[in-house]
Amino acid sequence: MEDEIRTVLSEELGDLATFGAEIPERYRRDWLSEQAVTPIAVIRPRTTEDVSRALRLCSRLGISVVPQGGMTGLVGGAQPVAGGVALSLDRMTAIEEIDEVMATVTVEAGATLGDVQRACEQAGLFLAVDLGARDSCQVGGVISTNAGGNRVIRYGMTRENVLGIEAVLSDGTIVTSLNKLLKNNAGYDLKQLLIGSEGTLGVVTRAVLRLHAQPQSFCSAFCGCADFAGVIGLLKAARSTLGAALTSFEVMWPSFYDFMCDGLPELRRSLAGRHGVYVLIEASGPAGQARQSLEDLLAAEIDAGHIADAVLPKSERETTELWAVRESVSEYGRLMGPLTGFDIGIPTGEAGAFVAEIEAALARHWPDVHALSYGHIGDSNLHLVVNVPSAGAHQPHDALCDLVFEAVSRYGGTISAEHGIGTIKRDYLHLTRSPSELEVMARLKRALDPRGILNPGKVLAPPHSATSQAVSPTVSPSATPPSGPA
């Protein structure tokens, strides 16, 4: 049967399709998976019409299609399936137009986020979506996972920065809605169905992204707080004092900060002594204004007792050093064995209690555990990275997921804040989505993908999941992501 499918694909798609041993390794697994899967073919279209032709053909043949972007996801969303095809948009990289009047950029889905950022910067505009994997991740993947990043507190998730989308449905239908208008209430907003759907409802081929004025300067401050109550006081004051100038509010608990600083000699501690919680604040604005606003904020918050100590960098080099610890997540492989990473959302005011509870619970179950807590707490996103040294290569990831996700549910949080569901969180989705929500999701899937060929086994379990392959959430220390768990 597969030989017949290969023949049909080859005849109808020509050089768009690659088969067997000719398929490069990068298309056989996404970043998270240790197990390579060779699909029947990799299809690399050059145009939206090529995508339409490929999906129409696969729908007719009844074979699964896994869309692939930059392969930097952390939930197994781009992992190919045996007996299906992988659809990579890495040939569709055009930055078609930067409209300086409308403040938009129109791009093909295979363009990397970093390339689009640089093109916009040259035009004097600013693409606010930013990820550590910016030079690897592709716009289509960023949209399909509704990626977040460090500046969500100011500019929102990817969803808030997408004005228009062109996509291809499972039957090959091209839906073009490349809207540039900030205000457009004409009927259903179809793009919202596709943003964050992880390629299960359609394949994004082009997009219109919203741009902003290029900030004249960014300024950062590093703070030590005695406890999480101080962090909450600082966050409220930062929102009030800085307003729209507040672009990042990153929090690191000692479990993360001390572990990374003690383990990586190139990192420099920016504050004397040790503190209960550490905070990185970034503000943007006209030259000099951001720094003055931060100085005023720090002085007031030290007087209020929310900050025990703080530092403002005097140079770009010192700014880089301040952020080095927070961005050292790509170095986990140097410090620990296989790890299980959690990207969760917790109501901001409860994050301190949650961290204290979950770190204590993990230590009770696994006394030698490394549990590192940090994240974008200004937008309620917490990252937790866990390694049990005594377990070696056989990390207890199922037990870890059960423990952590049950606690997330009790706290009214979400099992996925910015990396999606993929395969590794699919079976826990019911903990943070109601039965009625799950049923509506299933209805949408049936309506837009009636044959169930698009990214099977991702997000929602398909009625027949013989071709879906779950991916272990345990990350190999040798597989360092372009950004690490952000």
TrEMBL record:
<feature type="region of interest" description="Disordered">
    <location>
        <begin position="455"/>
        <end position="486"/>
    </location>
</feature>
<dbReference type="InterPro" id="IPR036318">
    <property type="entry name" value="FAD-bd_PCMH-like_sf"/>
</dbReference>
<dbReference type="GO" id="GO:0022904">
    <property type="term" value="P:respiratory electron transport chain"/>
</dbReference>
<dbReference type="InterPro" id="IPR016164">
    <property type="entry name" value="FAD-linked_Oxase-like_C"/>
</dbReference>
<dbReference type="InterPro" id="IPR051264">
    <property type="entry name" value="FAD-oxidored/transferase_4"/>
</dbReference>
<protein>
    <submittedName>
        <fullName>FAD-binding oxidoreductase</fullName>
    </submittedName>
</protein>
<dbReference type="InterPro" id="IPR016171">
    <property type="entry name" value="Vanillyl_alc_oxidase_C-sub2"/>
</dbReference>
<keyword id="KW-0274">FAD</keyword>
<keyword id="KW-0285">Flavoprotein</keyword>
<feature type="domain" description="FAD-binding PCMH-type">
    <location>
        <begin position="35"/>
        <end position="214"/>
    </location>
</feature>
<dbReference type="GO" id="GO:0016491">
    <property type="term" value="F:oxidoreductase activity"/>
</dbReference>
<comment type="similarity">
    <text>Belongs to the FAD-binding oxidoreductase/transferase type 4 family.</text>
</comment>
<dbReference type="InterPro" id="IPR006094">
    <property type="entry name" value="Oxid_FAD_bind_N"/>
</dbReference>
<dbReference type="Pfam" id="PF02913">
    <property type="entry name" value="FAD-oxidase_C"/>
</dbReference>
<dbReference type="InterPro" id="IPR016166">
    <property type="entry name" value="FAD-bd_PCMH"/>
</dbReference>
<dbReference type="InterPro" id="IPR004113">
    <property type="entry name" value="FAD-bd_oxidored_4_C"/>
</dbReference>
<keyword id="KW-0560">Oxidoreductase</keyword>
<dbReference type="GO" id="GO:0071949">
    <property type="term" value="F:FAD binding"/>
</dbReference>
<dbReference type="InterPro" id="IPR016169">
    <property type="entry name" value="FAD-bd_PCMH_sub2"/>
</dbReference>
<dbReference type="Pfam" id="PF01565">
    <property type="entry name" value="FAD_binding_4"/>
</dbReference>
